[in-house]
Sequence to fold (183 residues):
Amino acid sequence: MTDEEIAKRIRKKDMAAFDTMMEQYNKLLWLVMGNILEKVGTPEDIEDCISDVYLKLLENPKMYNEKKGSLKSFLVRVGKNMAIDRYRKLSRGRIIELPEQVASAGEDILQSLIQKENAEKVLEAVSALKEPDREIMIRRYFFNEKIKVISEKMFLNTKEIENRLYQGKMKLKKLIRQEEAFR
Fold:
């Protein structure tokens, strides 16, 4: 089912389409939101946050506009914002140590912000990839899993993982260049 079909059916309160959407995007949202909440939250906090994303869309399905982007990028953006809000709420009153490079000079802070912005562009481009390429890229480059480990977990041979990583990098370059051309 395409994003447009899912969106139309969700606007009609079709719960089957809602279930399909959850099946398609739960892993991605878990990765995005878990990456933000892992230091301050529990797995239950991440699950609650993911549920809040879906609930928000179910309560107001018109907030998603197909003309502004894919359903996937919409869910990632909303999920990321909710996870950041939850992070702030959970970390309130706690002392959270900043990485040394961020805590030092202002130039380092600027560099960190640029790196974060670039990482967000890459994550958005990765989320546009199809499975299993998306999962392979996330496991390898976001979680630094070794190719052999990815191969064992995904039941694919190592050569196929290496080929998909190479092809995925080429696709990412193309996607990022296209996005920069539109700006």
